[in-house]
Structures are given as C-alpha cells and as structure tokens.
Amino acid sequence: MQRGIVWVVDDDSSIRWVLERALAGAGLTCTTFENGAEVLEALASKTPDVLLSDIRMPGMDGLALLKQIKQRHPMLPVIIMTAHSDLDAAVSAYQQGAFDYLPKPFDIDEAVALVERAISHYQEQQQPRNVQLNGPTTDIIGEAPAMQDVFRIIGRLSRSSISVLINGESGTGKELVAHALHRHSPRAKAPFIALNMAAIPKDLIESELFGHEKGAFTGANTIRQGRFEQADGGTLFLDEIGDMPLDVQTRLLRVLADGQFYRVGGYAPVKVDVRIIAATHQNLEQRVQEGKFREDLFHRLNVIRVHLPPLRERREDIPRLARHFLQVAARELGVEAKLLHPETEAALTRLAWPGNVRQLENTCRWLTVMAAGQEVLIQDLPGELFESTVAESTSQMQPDSWATLLAQWADRALRSGHQNLLSEAQPELERTLLTTALRHTQGHKQEAARLLGWGRNTLTRKLKELGME
After folding, report:
1. Which residues belong to the annotated binding site?
2. Which of 44, 116, 143, 409 is most deeply packed, by most CB within 10 A?
3. Average pLDDT value for residue range 182-193
4. Distances in whole angstroms, Cα of residue 119 to Cα of each of 10, 112, 212, 237, 300
5. Nearest to 275 by CA among 194, 198, 200
6. The whole model's pTM is what?
7. Which residues make Cβ contacts (< 8 Å) with residue 315, sequence separation at least 6?
8. What Pfam families has UniProt attached to this entry?
9. The pLDDT value given to residue 412
C-alpha cells in the first residue's frame, strides 16, 4: 500500500493538531480544515485517500458534509468522529456511507490504524455502501468502548436481514438492541414481534410460534396465527432462546431452512419471510455440549454475535443513563425530573447493579416517586442497593470475618451520608488493636508494641493521640 493523503476537518484546533502530528509520524500526508465548507472547496481541485470529519461543527455538520462528499466522490472513505457517543450518531454515519465511526476520546494508535485501513480500502477501489435510512431514536445509551462496538455492529447490519444472536446478562438491554437492529434494517416498516421462551409454558410454545388450526386441541375453537405469521416480512425476536425445548428447536430449524411450517393440527404449509434475532443470558456453546441445545440450530442463529456488557463493566455510562431514566420517569408521571447530587452520582457509579440497566431504570422510577427533595441525596437511595453491593464484595469472605463487618459498617456509614471514612475508621481500628494487644500482654507495653509491629515510642505516641494513657 502506498502512503496516503489524509484530510482532517474539526473545529477543535487541539484535535487537528494531535491528529496531524500522529498521522505525519506514521508517514502519512495530512492536511487539516476548520469546517466543511473549506473541505468542499478543496475537493473541487484534489481528493485525499481518506477524510476524518467531526460530526458536531458550526455551520455544516459532519453528516451534511458526508452526504455531499458521497454525492461527489462516492468511493472516498470518510471516518466520522464525535464526542457525542450515541446509537443514532453511529447508525446515521454508517447509513450515509461512512467507512467507520471513531468516538472521542480515542486512542491515537487505534485512530492511525483505522486511517491506514481506510486508505487500503480506498486504494483497492472498493465501493462503500450508501444507504439512506433514518430510523427512529432509541434508548440505547453508551460511551463505553463495549457499547461502541454494539453501535458499530448495528450500523454495519443496517442493510442486512441475516440472523443475529445477542448475548448478555438479564437486564442488559437485549430487547432494545433487537428493536434497534429491526428499526435500522430494510424491514423497519414491517412488524417486530417478540416472544420470551422462558415466559411460555412448554406445551404452549409450538402453538405460540406456529399457530394452530381450529380443533387442533381442546379449546382451539378458531384458527390462530402464530408469531411467525404475525412477523411475516419483518423480524421475530426470540428472547431466552436457550430455554426452548429440543422438539421445538427441531421445528424452528426446519423453518429457518425451508421458510415454511405447519400450524399445529394443520396439513397445509405456511410460507413466511422472517428475520430471526435471538437472545440469551446462557452460554449456548455449553448448552450444546450438554445436549440441551441443537448444534445445527446454534450455527444457524450464530451468524452475527452481539455481546452486551453488564453495567458493572461500563460504569462510565451510569451517570448518563441515570439522568436519562430520571427524565423518562418524570415524563411518564407528569412531574419535574429529579437531579442527582454529585455524591449520589458517584455512589451510583460504585454500586454492583446485579440487575444491570433494568435495575438502574427501576431505581430511577422509585427515586422519582420516593425521593423527598428535588435533588437526590445518598440517603434517598434504597437500602437494598447497598446491601447487594456489600453482598457481592463480601461473598468471598467468611460471614463472621472482620473484613465483612468492616464492609457492613462502611455501607451503613455511606448510606448515612458520612464522608472521610478512613479518618473515622483508622483511630477506631488502632484503638481496638491497642486494647486487645495490651489485654493480651497484661498491660506490658513493650511486648504489645512487638505484637503490633510497632516500636515502643510509636505505641506510646499512639496511646497519647487516642487518649488511652
């Protein structure tokens, strides 16, 4: 690959400076621009190998610039940069033909590697895709790197109808991602039908999926369409697919292979065109090894895998998510949105959140109703949040260990709004150790100092500081 020519457009001079030097250091020729109008003017006489553009700029923004570039130079790869990391920005960039999406703050080495990949792509004369779809906004929020990967996958699948398997713990937002995949796909105007395998009695799953004929079983008084027929032309979301019985897995596999099925009690085949998005919190590979999930069905579903991280692995997103959920809850209840005190925001970020995003959302609803003031303080938070965090942090400890008791004390103190816990705890810890050591040595100070790992002078000073002389 020949060394390439890179143009950078950003109204932030510091970003231009950093990228210009990093790209020059990689042997690339870099020219910077302050706004989109300057880029379009320069494009009238020459063309780079790749363009990096900020998305939020005065005047012409990055998406408007991208649209004009794709009309004039459809083969030119454009990388969109933004500090506003959300799904709609990523999808809009991909749908309008962006080569890739680079959220700020970015790792400079990764940015250079992405530019070099785009140059290679351009020099190989590969035509990038250009799709004009403007899907509705969603409630998927995330600036964490793992969520940016999810946004990229949704953007890259915006012209596709292939099967997707979503993995993630309960409450991580798997159905939201499934909705987003549907909304940003060619099937967006067709139905999106969801079915949770774990919520349906096993003997009713076949009827729910495939429908039934009149008289197929006791109580089947009319013909009933199943979820496959309801989703014809659109998307069928099968949540908790790992709980699907093996016999139903066999029928599902046939539908995926043939595009047709029989209603329960029926003899005429029903043809459908349905995209399958499946989700699970289980390890399907392990279920396959245990003989509880068909391997051939697993491979049919696992064309594209999307992993949703638990909330504890994307703590930087918690404040923004909490503010969003407080605003949503306020709109639902017709009240003014609560505000988070900075200490409360920090406390939320430290919590365990075993229920993930769903638990955070429910907590924000609870706070909207139950918090006394307009500003949410630490003492307004429900106690079970701290109990679950303490339980998680002490799960590896003995139930009667001093560390467990210390963790429980710290939990109570934080809930009461205490600060500077170390300055409060350390004197008590030293007083307890001194008292115990002196009792053990029948008041012999030199021996007590030895047991504590102190010199005699240190012990004497500590006794004085703690008022124990």
Report:
1. 168-175, 231-240
2. 116
3. 91
4. 20, 11, 56, 38, 34
5. 194
6. 0.62
7. 349, 350
8. HTH_8, Response_reg, Sigma54_activat
9. 65
